[in-house]
UniProtKB/TrEMBL annotation:
Coiled coil: none annotated. This is Diguanylate cyclase. One of its GO terms (biological process) is phosphorelay signal transduction system. Keywords: Phosphoprotein. It comes from Methylomonas denitrificans.
Length: 292
């Protein structure tokens, strides 16, 4: 009887696996179709220097304009393609679209830096650097300095040596790097020391409760001091309120991104947003910290 029950359980487990495989297969096929049918769009969220009241650039964030389900956030579809080759096809699409937008804005006289998120698998793909080079070759007026790649610090887990080599190749082209969601990985300090990223992006989970949680405050202050010691730039994500900004300025972090500045917006809205942005007056009043 026990054997029979075990067998039944195995069957059910098997069927469950089939069901998951089916869903996964469908999603992959749908994402492939969505790419062909032009259903992906890039939204852009500004990055600013709070103390100077200056727009630095914007991060490109992918959305799926789904015909039935509406505008889908990356959390609704990126996990389904992680670990598949679709990550590379989609990543290449994001890169190509970002260059188109950059070209468009440069033609309008807007000089900003666009950041794109790069999946670990994409960065380590053998064609990655060549794709960047070809992209810029197709846009000879664009300066590669206008592009920044955000990589998750966990990306390096597999092979710090290879990641470093790819980063250096990209930097030779002029492209910059930010370590995204900094502080959430297992070996943040190892990465800080080993990876040649110009910028650290403090994860929003540390910023959220910075005003009430002394431990989060200590972590953020620590990261900001580390970036200074390592001669890196620092930016905080998830800046939702004036108070968040004031505290970050006090700690020595001038650069920020978050709903308190702007939500991600369609590409077409960005030029007008930049033209009309009124920097927070309390932020502008903060004097610069003396450099250590
Ligand atoms: P991320 O790179 O850390 O991007 C920041 C996320 O936080 C965005 O969510 C953004 O809308 C959200 N956010 C910004 N400011 C605030 C704030 O003040 N408060 C709160 N609560 N949230 C804020 P989104 O657009 O849903 O993206 C989620 C993640 O998906 C991104 O995290 C990134 O890891 C990934 N992603 C987005 N676009 C791409 C892409 O083109 N390629 C790859 N590989 N990953 C992408
Ligand atoms: Mg990012
Ligand atoms: Mg992030
Ligand atoms: Mg994040």
């Amino acid at each position: 009887v026990a054997k029979q029950r075990g067998k039944n359980r195995y069957h059910r487990f098997d069927q469950e696996l089939d069901r998951i495989a089916l869903i996964r297969g469908e999603t992959l096929t749908q994402i492939e179709a969505a790419l062909i049918n032009n259903q992906f769009v890039l939204y852009f969220q500004p990055k600013v220097n709070m103390r100077l009241g200056k727009v630095l650039g914007a991060e490109a964030l992918i959305r799926w304009q789904h015909p039935e389900r509406g505008l889908l956030s990356p959390a609704a579809f990126l996990p389904d393609i992680e670990g598949t080759e679709m990550v590379i096809a989609l990543g290449n699409w994001v890169f190509a679209r970002a260059l188109d937008h950059l070209q468009n804005w440069q033609n309008m006289g807007l000089n900003i830096v666009i950041s794109i998120n790069i999946a670990p698998r994409h960065l380590l793909h053998h064609d990655f650097v060549e794709t960047l080079r070809a992209g810029f070759a197709a846009h000879p007026q664009l300066r590669p300095h206008c592009l920044e790649l955000e990589i998750l610090e966990t990306a390096a887990l597999e092979d710090i040596g290879r990641v470093t080599a790819v980063m250096k190749e990209c930097q030779k082209l002029g492209v910059g790097f930010a370590l995204d969601d900094f502080g959430t990985g297992y070996s943040s300090l190892t990465y800080l020391k080993a990876l040649p990223a110009e910028t650290l992006k403090i994860d929003q989970s540390f910023i959220r409760d910075i005003l009430g949680d002394p431990e989060d405050l200590a972590i953020v202050a620590g990261i900001i001091n580390l970036t200074a010691a390592f001669h890196r730039q620092v930016i905080a994500e998830g800046v939702e309120t004036e108070e968040h900004g004031l505290l970050l300025l006090k700690l020595g972090c001038d650069n920020a991104q978050g709903y308190g500045i702007a939500r991600p917006m369609p590409a077409g809205d960005l030029p007008a947003w930049i033209a009309n942005w009124l920097p927070n007056q309390e932020w502008l009043k903060k004097p610069a910290l003396p450099s250590p």
